[in-house]
Amino acid sequence: MSNALAIAHVTQALALLIENNVGPEFGEAVKVEPRKPPADPQLEQPTISVFLYQVTPNSSLRNNDLPTRAADGTLVKRPAAALDLQYLISAYGDERELVGQRLIGSVVRTLHEIPVLPKDVIEQAGERPYLAGSDLAEAAQRVRFTPTVMDVDETSKLWGMLYQTPYTLSVVYQATLVLIDGRATPVPGRPVERPEVRVLPFGAPGAPVPPAAQPQGEGPSSGVGSKELVKAETEEPAAPPAKRAAKAPAKAPAKAVAKAPARTRKAAPRTARSAQTETRKADRGDDGTEN
């Protein structure tokens, strides 16, 4: 947790971190400025600009401190704003010697090797008079730098916001996480009025009986079991399912016997009719005349 000077403190510490690591590797003095890219860059000395172009709320911790007040408006928790800082780091120098590209390479190596802002660099940056009173060095959450990928369209929009500033080779980094505390002090919670803790050994008056000490046959489970056993003995046993299965097939032949005479009666007229037809044919001759 930090105060309102945390944003400026991180910017100054980032510029100091780059200056301490890029200068000795580059072989000559490198000027690192925490400012906007210059509209008319001077090529007399290699220069790196560290420009904070955007401050965004951290998506994972933006609502971590809610709610901060009780129903009556009393402050119960100090609010803290979780922020991410977006930096544009540009390099300037003699293009004939590829100074800008060499500087960008040193910046990338430095931030990849030291992604977390060291405490000694934070303390060194806090010695500036305009950062007096900053407590970023005591913050539990350290600031981490990660590179941000930007395509040509996003890069064009970013540099389009910088009015009359020529484009130069740059990299974009995100600083996570910066927490800024509120100034109000929350109301302390009410203390416990009457703590009650009782410790009783087994067997003492008022202490619960351990399950192992309970004799068999006692308790609510034994009474229920005996009642169910007596009830099962007094009830008359039901008929076995085998007898029911034996009675079921006996009904089928009865229906078949009852229906048999009906079929015989229906078939009898058909037989009589066929006999009469044959008798009539016999009475007639071969020529179709009756005898």
UniProtKB/TrEMBL annotation:
Residues 241-261 have a biased composition (Low complexity). Residues 9-193 form the Pvc16 N-terminal domain. Residues 201-291 are annotated as: Disordered. Pfam families: Pvc16_N. Residues 278-291 have a biased composition (Basic and acidic residues). This is DUF4255 domain-containing protein. It comes from Streptomyces guryensis. The lineage of its organism: Bacteria, Bacillati, Actinomycetota, Actinomycetes, Kitasatosporales.
